[in-house]
């Protein structure tokens, strides 16, 4: 985002620190049902679901795990079958060979070091095969222990449009957001942006005229939305 654009955005909609709480408050009302779309019943199923969600849709993962979780209930189950069988069982999620190796490596560590349980510690999650920062963030947040902010394509796009970050790298975007978003909202903030991105602020055709945070968004001022169409600036 160009420096001149940032300066103009601040002049039009105010400082980002003044806007973040109203943005969260309005989106929380608009998307009261916002939450993770993956289906799981326990921390192990959560971890597996998030690991399988890389490079595919949540709908597809749920379709696969509906059968998978009836067959694989404990970490030991993932190691009790030949790797080729596990690959077949997760084939539809894509990148099945890499995911099968990561799952088996993770299950071996869970058994050896954590009594078969998914660790609570964020750094311990990061040491599991196939678990990068985004996966660890999702698992921690869904367990009520958010240690950071999940950055996916929707979070990146909307954070940039809202002028909350100028970064492109997900780690740097997360750092900007962690300095801005109240820690108590780290878990739900990504869900709010994700659902708003899906329903209103799409990549190609954002519906600024229907957006409840248009008056708080610098990008809306460049979209042709008149001031009279924007919601009131109070939260």
Would you kindly provide a written description of the structure presented here, covering whatever features stand out?
The protein is mainly alpha-helical and 235 residues long. Helices cover 54% and strands 0% of the residues. Helix 2 packs across helix 12 and helix 3 runs antiparallel to helix 9 (133-142). Mean pLDDT is 92; it is low at 226-230.
Question: What attributes characterize this protein structure?
Answer:
mainly alpha; 0% strand; elongated; 12 helices; 235 residues
Structural class: mainly alpha
Number of helices in the DSSP assignment = 12
Identify the quaternary structure here. Answer: single chain
Contiguous runs where pLDDT drops below 50 for at least 5 residues: 226-230
Largest sheet: none
Helix % is 40-55%
Cα-to-Cα separation, first versus last residue: 26 Å
- What is the string of SSEs from the N terminus onward? HHHHHHHHHHHH
Rg (CA only): 20 Å
Mean pLDDT, to the nearest integer, reads 92
Number of strands: 0
| Strand composition percent | under 5%
Global outline? elongated
